[in-house]
Amino acid sequence: DGSFGSREGSLPRDCMYGRYTQELGVYAKEEAARLRDGGGLRRVTSVRSRSAELLEYEKDPCAKCHVCTSRCQKFLISRVGEDWIFLILLGLVMALVSWVMDYAIAFCQQAQKWMYGGLDSNMLLQYLAWVTYPVVLITFSAGFTQILSPQAVGSGIPEMKTILRGVVLKEYLTFKTFVAKVIGLTCALGSGMPLGKEGPFVHVASLCAALLSKFLAALFGGLYKNELRNTEMLSAACAVGVGCCFAAPIGGVLFSIEVTSTFFAVRNYWRGFFAATFSAFIFRVLAVWNQDEETITALFKTRFRLDFPFDLQELPAFAILGIACGFGGALFVYLNRLIVECMRKQKTINKFLLRKRLVYPAMVTLIISTLTFPPGFGQFMAGQLTQHESLVALLDNRTWCRQGVAEEFDYISHSHAWKHPQVNVFITLILFIVMKFWMSAVATTMPVPCGAFMPVFLIGAAFGRLVGETMAIMFPDGIHADGSVYPIVPGGYAVVGAAALSGAVTHTVSTAVIVFELTGQISHILPVMIAVILANAVAQSLQPSLYDSIIRIKKLPYLPELGMGHHEKYNIRVEDIMVRDVRYITLSSSYREVQEVLMTGQLKTLALVESTDSMILLGSIERSQLQSLLSLQLGPTRRLDHLRRHAQDNGTHTHTLGAHTHLTSLDTMDSPPSPPCTHTHSYTSNSSNTSARHGVRFLVSVAEVILNPLSQIAEWEEQQLDEPVDFNNCKIDPAPFQLVERTSLHKTHTIFSLLGLDHAYVTSTGRLVGVVSLRELRKAIEGSVTVTGVKVRPPLASFRDSGNTTSVSEVTELHKLWNRHRGLSLPREPTPPDMEDQLDLVFLCE
Amino acid sequence: DGSFGSREGSLPRDCMYGRYTQELGVYAKEEAARLRDGGGLRRVTSVRSRSAELLEYEKDPCAKCHVCTSRCQKFLISRVGEDWIFLILLGLVMALVSWVMDYAIAFCQQAQKWMYGGLDSNMLLQYLAWVTYPVVLITFSAGFTQILSPQAVGSGIPEMKTILRGVVLKEYLTFKTFVAKVIGLTCALGSGMPLGKEGPFVHVASLCAALLSKFLAALFGGLYKNELRNTEMLSAACAVGVGCCFAAPIGGVLFSIEVTSTFFAVRNYWRGFFAATFSAFIFRVLAVWNQDEETITALFKTRFRLDFPFDLQELPAFAILGIACGFGGALFVYLNRLIVECMRKQKTINKFLLRKRLVYPAMVTLIISTLTFPPGFGQFMAGQLTQHESLVALLDNRTWCRQGVAEEFDYISHSHAWKHPQVNVFITLILFIVMKFWMSAVATTMPVPCGAFMPVFLIGAAFGRLVGETMAIMFPDGIHADGSVYPIVPGGYAVVGAAALSGAVTHTVSTAVIVFELTGQISHILPVMIAVILANAVAQSLQPSLYDSIIRIKKLPYLPELGMGHHEKYNIRVEDIMVRDVRYITLSSSYREVQEVLMTGQLKTLALVESTDSMILLGSIERSQLQSLLSLQLGPTRRLDHLRRHAQDNGTHTHTLGAHTHLTSLDTMDSPPSPPCTHTHSYTSNSSNTSARHGVRFLVSVAEVILNPLSQIAEWEEQQLDEPVDFNNCKIDPAPFQLVERTSLHKTHTIFSLLGLDHAYVTSTGRLVGVVSLRELRKAIEGSVTVTGVKVRPPLASFRDSGNTTSVSEVTELHKLWNRHRGLSLPREPTPPDMEDQLDLVFLCE
């Protein structure tokens, strides 16, 4: 867990100041050594010209302000318009990506078939071709992803869930990841393994949105730099991802809401709908333009009869199917986690796999493709069909067998794969379900970009078809008693099963909508809804969703949900979980103290209190603000200023004329109050700015290091650090979030998840007494929710219970409140150290 | 607006204490007068026996505690199960209500037809029958509603929106309202006026949920008394309402989310889905059992061809249809509001209508039914069809006319209504659209329970049909160029138009899903989505939604949305809008001060500060808590205690023996600390308890009034009021919501709407400086959002702008912060009184 704590804080901590001084020191020594070797002057000149050039580049950063404000006004006026344009662009790009990828995947699969078909003279060669092809593709995918961006591995939905929660996982939204994900996914899906593209598509769409934002920001400036807006756009992007993957705009929006959000702002609704619709539209239009289809229709169009889709008396069968799918979904999630945990726990396997990262995917692929080899075992489980072909066959509206005897069904070209001369269709279906079940669970643990939705959907469809065919045999003329005969439609069961199983695995209800959009028919709405709800009820009571399971496996910094009703049970308060050792700065802090605080703390912002005695919270300051204050104080401008004055005082005009003019020019260029001003106006573009300025400072300091004795600089630095901080022009948030000690865990959780907070200060009558961050909250909650089905009671709560009765803790003891405020606070019952340890233990065990 | 402020606070303000003393005084005088007339003793005895009986009834209120805690545990364990049962019951009841109501409506309409048909010999009689029938029904509906519960008038969605926002509108969820709404709605719809049932059904379902909660609470005790839970249930109920009205579970859930929520908790999702599905299922199953249908299918099943639902080149037509519907929707909302406002402004009309409330609905009905009289003007606008029949005809998949010549279409029995021998189908359609448009806008302003969704849906379908028929004439063989001929399906246009117009009026996207579920076909998904999104884009930029419009007309206490992008524009801070004159109590307050504060304030809770000097906020106390403290201090127990001691001190044992034992027995029965204890443990059941105790106290005080001189009591009361309040055992919320003065309006708005707050305290370094309630926030926001299309700038913001520049206000001036804290606060720029007036004016004008 510690790794994530540092990841959250890693950017600010080792970003600017720390690295700056360290590098400076190293470089200074190197340069001094080189200087002693001679040839310094020429070098200085070249350094000067480059630094001057760089300074030219960022001359007068305040000039931006005017641009900013006028732009801001334009921004406000045109914001809605910009949104539309952005969403259209996003939809367009994603539709193109989706379409091209589909084409590439189809091509890959065709190539395999062609190879396999061409070699039908020799079984061994055929087997080698059948097996080698996916192994090569998967290995390439795994290797490529590993080298370019390991963040592209897996589904991406857990990560998006975490990012939308407000936690910054920067590496997950880079161009490298985009390339790795798209190419890796194409290869992985092209291999024909039981992998899906829905989850990765959510990630790809988010990547697209993030990159598009960046691109447009570079093109049009500040318009695309609002962080709140980016979150809104990311959440729209998730909808686009699902939408253009299945050409299911409504289902896409709903699925992305269910999967990624805890609280959903209804005003963002239209964004998702608009982008997903546009994207799905373009995606399908491309197919029409390419002459693949005559017009825009559903991806897996079904042709069930409309007038009598199902009998009322079939509903119990649908309900049983739903419940069975619920158990199946829970089993899938459990199996998937079990495999990952087994691999991790077996130390020898783990070590081996860590060294040879490509062995695992290659081995898994080898086993799976061997088992599906059509002339071998594959003939009993329709091994030669791709996912798409299998699904089309499973959703067919005609019955495969009747009266126990397999019918001849050759109307669809690839339906014969299901019919084996010696073996019943039922055996084929059961084998297909069982084999695909574990294969999918194993395949999704491979380190390639892949999702589990589509394989699960397929298994569900097969299971539904199995139930449907059974029903068709049991009631050959349909159930309906009076009058006309309506035979049972096994395809309808397949639709219901697909929705129910995928709903159970992902804990969503919107899979129902996705199947309607996917099949283009809504006639089975009631059976689908009933099955999906029952499947969800069963699965949710047994296991977390697949995505939550992955979040726990990957230990992503996501705030878990409070269990139903649990929050009333445990009366944990903020004072039990808060960190009492808060990093703060006071109004009279010196720069040295600021430096120390910056070195040690991890949170994005720091508390500003009145004084160490009063501890009254005045506000919070962003880390970057303090860093810029510090670098301003120790920065090259003031440093040069000091040096020049020092030189003038000593009357030593011994430097070369060139160096002197250089100093003067630098001085006039870089006017003192500019850096914080830049920070005020364009604080989202910090990174690029600071890196440029960093370069300048670096070069300038090289120049001065060469010209001056090192000791003098060090002395000056020490002196500067002892000065009190000047907080003028520093952006202070005067209203950081505050809780009081007795705020309940439940309330804290609600506030954190509703407002997407990272941390909140705990105050007691205005005095800062602690801080609670996501990490503490997560710890406290994870003690109280089910981890693997076993409920763990948070030790702190039980401790609390033994001390107080429930009724007493409800009534606030005023005298305590009073005494605490008066400073005569009662000796707080100290939490025994073993209790604290236990909490950590519970957390680590997981 | 003031009326709502007082309504919010009305319950606590005039509830317990005020009335108690007043009644006591009056009764005491009467009793004293009667005593003087003689016959006192017998009366006293009877009083004693009744009071003893009542005391017996609530003897040992703390005994409940054990029950409570054991129940609570059960509650936690079984909560989820209870939810399921509750939702099933709700779904069942609503399905039955919906089905019975549909039957009754169909019967009413059939009766009218039969009457009308039976009198075809005499035109005048026929006309009278045609007109009288709806006039009587509507007048009855209006009168019945008016007498039983005026809250049942109208749609109910605006009220539900307000209630789900957290504002208590108690009268809207009573049994009376339920009866009034159900019967009123049945009559209103049975009359055949262009009215809908969707909105009222949302209200009816919520009423059902509230009553069911109450009923189950009475049956099983505390399990159903959680307020948070009730809100969750209400939001599920809204989904049920829509779901069982249209048999559209998914669309129902989404529509109710879009219409009623600002932020939606995804964990409540399943509740809505489950209840709506169950309810829709039962609703449709009832139809099957009743032999109306063979199996469960869609309500308005369409039979469009599946293989080629529409041509890609038809999409521009669909888009134009969507945009036109957007304008139409905005016009409808505008027209509806215009009618209401006209009626209000015309003082003479207004006065007349207020006196004769039934004249307006009767007149409107008369006009509308006259115009639709089939042998009269109605023949040109299919006047004889009910809404249901019209919609079935409009959604038909065959073309009505081809090549400009009206075809013979007699395949559906009521399609001939559209075909007039002399008049083109187009003329009929246009007349239908235009007439129904204003008729619906007028009819929905009648004071009967009615919605506007269905009429708008119908108009949209007619408009779509018009466009579709036009397209069919323009492209008689379809647009598709190569190969097979696919004629245009005008029914598809009708579906698209219906979804787009109803989407535009309600500002929702989920009408798309509703039409899919209503027609049972999803093949037109892309055209529908495109049209709905375009219609929404147009309508949202022109007018508020119909429900928001009604909220403004009715001046319901709803927090409006911040306009898009507006929030960045106006830098209003909490300090600009907060109320500085906060009602608070201090730790050293006397009971008299508490009494005064209770008399004057309006908010549900009161701030507790350390002292008037320091003003440090310690917490907040609920009004009811203070009231119980006060009544405990002045209550009968202490009063009797005092009297007895007083009597003993004076050594006057002159009372009758009976009265003395009476006092003793009372004393032993009612042990001192019990009343606050009751409050602590069962504070949700306050009202019933207090009323019972109120009775007891009342009787007891009668007894003491009779036995003692009045002046002595008054003196004692004064003395008691001067004592400092004892806050022990008083429930204090130690963490009320706090903002600081510089919290922006945007942040405040977000927090209020996310957390459903009623008010928040404003503190400055722990000191209470003000309070912001919903009312202030609403005022501030309404200054900045469009009211009737004209943007009104909030005067405070403009004032602010002139003083500061934007950049300055971004950077917090630390010295101000510092000075303010130090108590040397800068003289705050006083808001000129005319500015304040202006704000009020803006608010009142609306």
Describe the overall structure:
Two copies of one chain form a homodimer. In chain A, 64% of the residues lie in helices and 4% in strands. By secondary structure, chain A is mostly helical. A four-stranded mixed sheet of chain A has the order 4-5-6-7. A three-stranded mixed sheet of chain A has the order 8-9-10. In chain A, α3 (40-57) packs antiparallel against α29 (686-707) and α12 (315-345) runs antiparallel to α17. The longest helix of chain A has 56 residues, at 63-118. Residues 1-29, 31-78, 403-412, 564-569, 652-690 and 784-846 of chain A have low confidence and may be disordered. Chains A, B: Residues 664-690 are annotated as: Disordered.
Describe the secondary structure blueprint for this structure.
Two copies of one chain form a homodimer.
Chain A: H1 2-13, H2 17-36, H3 40-57, H4 63-118, H5 123-148, H6 157-164, H7 175-190, H8 198-220, H9 227-246, H10 249-260, E1 263-265, H11 269-289, H12 315-345, H13 347-355, H14 359-371, H15 387-394, E2 401-402, E3 405-406, H16 425-443, H17 453-474, H18 490-506, H19 511-519, H20 525-542, H21 546-554, H22 566-569, H23 574-577, E4 584-586, H24 591-600, E5 605-609, E6 617-622, H25 623-634, H26 636-650, H27 657-669, H28 674-681, H29 686-707, H30 710-721, E7 732-733, E8 738-739, H31 745-755, E9 759-764, E10 767-773, H32 774-782, H33 795-803, H34 806-810, H35 814-822, H36 833-845
Parallel strand pairs in A: 4-5, 8-9
Antiparallel strand pairs in A: 2-3, 5-6, 6-7, 9-10
Helix pairs in contact in A: 2-29, 3-27, 3-29, 4-5, 4-7, 4-8, 4-9, 4-11, 5-7, 5-14, 6-21, 7-8, 8-9, 9-10, 9-11, 10-11, 10-19, 12-16, 12-17, 12-18, 12-20, 12-21, 15-17, 16-17, 17-18, 18-19, 18-20, 24-25, 31-32
